[in-house]
Amino acid sequence: MSYRLPRRRTLLCLAAMPFALGTAFAAESTVNLNLNLDLNLKSVPNLELRLLQEPPKLKTRARPANRAASKRDEFEKSYYMYIRYANGTIYNPTTAKHDKVRLRSYQQTNGLALDGRDENAATFMAPTVVMAPGQTVRFKLYNQLPALPAEQCATADTNAPRPRGCFNDTNLHSHGLWVSPSGNSDNVLISIKPGVDFEYEYNIPIDHPAGTFWYHPHQHGATAMQVASGMAGALVVEGDRYPTETANGDLDVILKQFQPDDGSGSAGEVMLLQQIPYDCPSNSLTPTKPCPTDGVGVLEDFDQVEDPDAWLMSGRYTSVNGKVQPVLKMKTQRLYRWRMIDTGFQASVVLRIRRANDPQKLFQALGVANQDKDVMDLCNGEDVTQFEVASDGLTHDKIIPKTLNYLQPGYRSDILFSLPKAGAYCVYAETNVNNMTTMHDVNNTRLIAVIAAKTNAKASARARAGESPRDFLLAELRNAVKSLPGVQLPDSVKNTILGDLENGLKLGKFVPHASFSEAAKEAMRGKKKEYATFNIAKVDGKFRFMVEGKPEDSPTPEMKYVYDPHRIDHTLVLGTEQIWELASKKGNHPFHIHVNPFQIIGITRTDGGTVDAQYKDLIGTWKDTLLVIKDHKIEIATRYQRYIGEYVLHCHILEHEDQGMMQNVKVVLPDGKGGGDMGGHGH
Predict the structure, then answer these.
(1) Which end of the chain is more exposed for a tag (fewer CB within 10 A), N or C?
(2) Which residues have CB under 8 Å from 89's CB, separation 6+?
């Protein structure tokens, strides 16, 4: 089944844009790249510009001059972030050249648009923020985007697409963090206008899970456009808590031994995937035509994100850490951790790592225009097994092996893997499978990155001939556990961890949230449930994007299911736990709820068919974002802990959220009688 909404085609005229082009556009170059690998590489155009680097870390704000240093300084971190248009370039494999672009961007400085390393080029990937449980982290946002006249930005209703160029109001969302949704914490119900600065303050609980999270704008009506412009960055909560006999700890204490050896630490493990559907003004979303020499790619029209196939039609490529089809220099027989973050505004990525049997031809193809088919024909070797240890920043109770990693918009996947042989490996999006959130099966397989693997002489002696990836992983983890000092990890706890690993790669001593028992599930099923059903239907002659409630409450589409910022759709009571039922009437939609994560406790087909393959091994896992596929019913269980206030749930196909596929949630104090207190002062 498919649907297609009416779409407009508006030529984007650069002359009408209120800016002047700067000089931060990188020049094309051809280099003789010596990767020092077991490969005889020839000159490849632009390859030096495409070597992957870790995302820059956001630089902390200097301590005020009138305040003396304190041992408490490590518990309080402050940052500046400037939101402005930036000039830069993005490599285009269709032409084998870098396209000039001008996009909204998070920047670290108040001067030129810098990426933290290269003063001559902007990046459209926000810096990584590394934090720790117990810290107070402040972000002062300066909205330096230009303001437009109010009458030019007027809209027909709350959920109507904004007029061209009117996407400059903003705010900030810390996706997945367990922090307050109110005040100047993770409050997405405020708007920061152009010319306004505002400081967010996140108090990270001392018991916050260590893991991989991210941040992005969440301005209703402008979220898709701003995230699609590259406004997204990683939030890494590092953990140093060792498990004890009675308490769980952080998996980081084991995995830290496998971090990059260049000093980048956990920031160097980040793999930020982005979809930036920029369009040169003369193209009007026609991917077969290259940008003219003087063309500059922009993102100013909602048409560029609105259509269900907008990303596929754009002809652009998924970027990694700000680069398209980068080259990653890695070693064989070494355990790697990738913190993968899918910040795409629309389409899913089914990520696969596969060996190329002819590395020389693969690298040669990297510098050739329109190389998609040739490159993918070369990605024909054995798969590299991805061992997922966490999803959405939350450690699994056991490691999940996979070769196809389904990444929906908003998902995070922490994987461990190793490369068995020297040579080249393709990292690519396998979209010739039934995975599209837009309900279209399209063979649009695209290369994301290439790994250049060098023989690791130090490790080759340890590896046994014929050792499977699972055996190699188990041996590396076993050695890492045994090497931890006994003063921090007593032998009794070590033995428990080692026993769990031997017994099915279990990680029981590192799970951050307690699972719901069968008794708790049965008790919750006897109480009131919450329902969220995604739907797209015509209401009042317009296509409306909605989240409906209980099935019996919504026999026909009504405006009450279209997002209203002043309506509370779910009132929940602090300290309680509850089951939600998720479903979709039209299309497939990633469900995301702020503040409190959930555990998946049931997935069934409502039409009697087979449960979709991407739900394999998900029962019992904790997440904050989950694709809801049509004809499936999903049960999740959650606890409302610590925080009261208003926040939202929504579809993380961001143009759907912008058009009304969102609801307001409010957590209130208990009233002492089994219900919720609706407010103070007698109201």
Answers:
(1) C
(2) 25, 26, 98, 99, 100, 101, 121
